[in-house]
UniProtKB/TrEMBL annotation:
It comes from Pseudoduganella aquatica. Its main location: cytoplasm. It catalyses: D-fructose 6-phosphate + L-glutamine = D-glucosamine 6-phosphate + L-glutamate. This is Glutamine--fructose-6-phosphate aminotransferase [isomerizing]. The keyword Transferase applies. HAMAP family: GlmS.
Length: 609
């Protein structure tokens, strides 16, 4: 969250900074801003609208420069207002000596604010970031690189910062601790950004800064010191980052496009898999899988629901016990570590702060067998884990995850099969049958997508509601949770999901004629139990909206609306059912007129805790 770009060059860098911000806008869109060194002074432009608006502003004012920084914000401290937008200046807007942008949270900001206020600094914003700008200004000794190294020692919490000073027109200094930051090395010019995608087309020579690094960027020089202030060489990697600038094509939103891409990206994720092989998860995977006798899955949000689905698969197919934990809880609770655990992290971006911290916590507890299911091969998560399975969802632009989720599920199903095989629990016939079903997934999903017109009819009704319940059982309970999350995220309709058997233990009290109850009804061993739960809802007047397998024997009637799923799909059924729930959320949001790709208060790639 929050995107940073910075540059020091011998040409006008405004277009590079703005292009970088556009590509980083997924990380936050509460406000954005750019600051440049112009004729011996610091100038900035900020907007509480989108980067396109900032670009117009910059065009109008003709803001140009060779050295500068830019930022797109997801607010943590202080409202999404223009005075809180980065870059922040110090000591004041009219007399700026220091300009600074920040991604992260400074936990001791209150204490520093009091100290700096006592020194005469007047704060213009409610952000924790402004304290860093004033701190750097206060400590400034004529050498920005040295000053920043001293200043960051006073910060508690997480930060990626980029800063420049009026007195040093050809220098940008950056530092990171707990938030991502990369350097793009150029010819006689250098760059810094939150991720390599921001610099695609400008520099593909990328250095991934490590925790505690401080970097000095000058025209012909990149100098890095580590957390101990020691000069270090970091590897420069050639990274062909995606620009993320995918065309919308015939779609109205990226989310819709990404929902419809699922047949292809699941095919891509499983491409070339001719058999279940531990090596698909990386070198040495066989040995690791042999040495473990339990699995701990750490994730947040939608990825957590992918992990929750995987628990059902891994326990039933591989008979390996699985715990799934919300990363932000796990990292702070006392747990009982077991070194014979496979720690699996799931993250679309591979930069999710809570998941990364939970992974480090697990390792600190002595659990060294780590695997990540991740969509970004160059991410911190992939670098930090011993094993990895890279999903091939491609760049996901919509903030509400869709194709990343289903590709995670495909990878996790493969993990379940692999653990079963390593444990001698997968016969050749079973392997062949599962692989056949997986290969058929793209065409099965295509059939679900064809249900869109029926789902649109339901969505028109949903759009008028303020609450909804989602029910599922077994394997489909996490899918109900994901369906409710999707609806909340983009349509702002309050939605909750329950395992259907839990209704009578409380939530049934909410059911009236006004309550739509979405029910996932695959024809599995729990179907008769589920039908009883549906009766309980009907008896209270609740309106049932049922996604039923073709052979579930549930028919439309009074207060019961049924959409028939095209096929009965056994254990892979969650991957099909979630697609219909994505469409329901998308079309409900569309009918309510919300900003589907950039829902309020949210951002992609959650790099703060
Ligand atoms: N705390 C700063 C930066 C926010 C951030 O990094 N969000 O992801 C602010 O609120 O401006």
């Amino acid at each position: 969250m929050c995107g940073i770009v910075g540059a020091v060059a011998q040409r006008n860098i405004t277009p590079i900074l703005l292009e970088g911000l556009k590509r980083l806008e997924y990380r936050g869109y509460d406000s954005c801003g750019v600051a440049l060194h112009v004729d011996g002074a610091l100038q900035r432009s900020r907007s509480t609208s989108r980067v396109a608006d900032l670009e117009k502003q910059v065009d109008e004012t003709g803001l140009k420069g060779f050295t500068g920084i830019a930022h797109t914000r997801w607010a943590t401290h202080g409202a999404p207002a223009s005075h809180n937008a980065h870059p922040h200046f110090s000591p004041s807007s009219d007399n700026a000596r220091i300009a600074l942008v920040h991604n992260g949270i400074i936990e001791n900001h209150d204490e520093l604010r009091a100290e700096l206020t006592a020194l005469g600094y007047v704060f213009q914003s409610q952000t924790d970031t402004e304290v860093i700008a004033h701190l750097v200004d206060h400590m400034y000794n004529g050498d920005l690189f040295d000053t920043v190294q001293q200043a960051v020692k006073r910060l508690h919490g997480a930060y990626a910062i980029a800063v420049f000073a009026r007195e040093e027109p050809h220098r940008v200094v950056a530092a990171r601790q707990g938030s991502p930051l990369i350097v793009g090395v150029g010819q006689g010019e250098n760059f810094v950004a939150s991720d390599a995608m921001a610099l695609a087309g400008t520099s593909d020579q990328i250095i991934y800064l490590e925790e505690g690094d401080v970097v000095d960027l000058q025209l012909g020089k990149v100098w890095i010191v580590d957390v101990n202030g020691k000069s270090v060489e970091r590897e420069v990697k050639t990274v062909h980052a995606h620009t993320g600038a995918a065309e919308l094509g015939p779609y109205r939103h990226y989310m819709q496009k990404e929902i419809f891409e699922q047949p292809r990206v699941i095919g891509d994720t499983l491409e070339g898999i001719t058999g279940v092989m531990p090596e698909l998860f990386g070198d040495g995977a066989y040995k690791v899988f042999k040495e473990i006798d339990r699995v701990l899955i750490l994730a947040c949000g939608t990825s957590y629901y992918a992990g929750s689905t995987a628990k059902y698969w891994i326990e039933s197919i591989a008979k390996v016990p699985v715990n799934v934990e919300i990363a932000s809880e796990y990292r702070y609770r006392d747990s009982v570590p077991d070194p014979r655990t496979l720690v699996v992290t799931i993250s679309q971006s591979g930069e999710t702060a809570d998941t990364l911290a939970a992974l480090k916590h697990a390792r600190a507890l002595g659990m060294e067998h780590t695997l990540t299911i991740c969509n970004v091969a160059t991410s911190a998560m992939v670098r930090e884990c011993k094993l990895a399975y890279i999903t091939r969802a491609g760049v996901e632009v919509g903030v509400a995850s869709t194709k990343a989720f289903t590709t995670q599920l495909a990878a996790l199903f493969l993990l379940a099969l692999t653990l079963a095989q390593v444990n001698g629990r997968l016969t050749d016939e079973e392997e062949a049958a599962h692989l056949k079903a997986m290969r058929h997934l793209p065409s099965a999903i295509t059939s679900v997508l064809a249900l869109e017109p029926q789902i649109i009819a339901w969505a028109d009704e949903f759009a008028r509601k303020e609450n909804a319940l989602f029910l599922g059982r077994g394997l489909h309970y996490p899918i109900a949770l994901e369906g409710a999350l999707k609806l909340k995220e983009i349509s702002y309709i309050h939605a909750e999901a329950y395992p259907a058997g839990e209704l009578k233990h409380g939530p049934l009290a909410l059911v009236t004629e006004e309550m739509p109850v979405v029910t996932i009804a695959p024809n599995d061993t729990l179907i008769e139990k589920l039908k009883s739960n549906m009766q309980e809802v009907r008896a209270r007047g609740g309106q049932l909206f049922v996604f039923a397998d073709v052979d579930s024997r549930i028919t439309s009637g009074d207060g019961v609306h049924v959409i028939r799923m095209p096929e009965h799909y056994g254990q892979l059924s969650p991957i099909l059912h979630v697609v219909s729930l994505q469409l329901l959320a998308y079309h409900s949001a569309l009918a309510r007129g919300t900003d589907v790709d950039k829902p309020r208060n949210l951002a992609k790639s959650v790099t703060v805790e």
